[in-house]
Design goal:
By secondary structure, this protein is of the alpha+beta class. It contains 7 helices and 10 strands. β1 and β2 form a beta hairpin.
Length: 242
Amino acid sequence: MANGNGKDATLHQTILVEIEGRIMSGEWQPGFRLPFEVELAEHYGCSRMTVNKVMTQLAKAGLIERHRRAGSFVTKPRAQSAVLELHDIETEVKSLGLPYSYNLVSRKERRSNAEDRRLMELADATPMIELLAVHRAGGKPFCVEERRINAGVVPEATATDFTVSAPGGWLIAQVPWSAAENRIQAITASAEIARLLKQPRGTACLVVERRTWSHAGPVTFVRLTYPGDSHTLVARFTPEHR
C-alpha cells in the first residue's frame, strides 16, 4: 500500500508540473479547453481520482476554471488594482507576465468647455489637453484611456506629445498631487470604446474615473475603461481603533 501511495504522489506531481508548465509557458492560452479528466487519466496511465486532485489544485491556484460538463479551461488573466491607489497601467500589465505597449490615438489642445469644468471642478476657463489612448497587454487591448489635463496647472504638458510615454506616469512624476478621487462603475461599451477594445458593442466594461488635484488646483481627469472580464478592483481595510 505504501508503495502504491508513493507512486500516486509522484504521478500527481508529474501531471501537475506538466500542465502548469504548459499554461505558464503560454502553450495553452487563456480560454484553451484542457483534455477531459478521462482523457488525461488514460494518457498518464493513472486513476481519474489522481487527475481530479490535480485539477482541483490547479483551480485553487487560479490557473484553470472548471465547468460541469463543459470541462476545464485556462483562466483569463485578471489584473488587480487597489481602489484607493493611483496605479500605473504598465506595472499592472507586467504583473500579469505580459508584454506592455501603448498607443496614442489622438491629442487635442483647446480651451476648457462646460463639461471640463463640471468634471474637473474648474472655476475659470483654462487651456486643456485632451488625450485618447489604448494600453495593450500581450498585443491585445487592455484598457482605453480618456484623459483631460489642465494645462493651466501643468503647462509642461503642452510641450509633451505623449506618443512614447503614457500621461499617467508622466503626470505623477511631474506634478505632486495633494488629493485624488476615484469613481468606479459598470457600463456597456459604446461603439467607439468597443472598437478600441476590439470587443462587441454592448460588452460589459469596468470604468474607473479619477480626478487629482495639486495645491495649484485641478490637475487631471481620466476615464479608464476595461473589459469587465479582465480586471478586478481590490480594497483592503483595517478596523477603526477607538
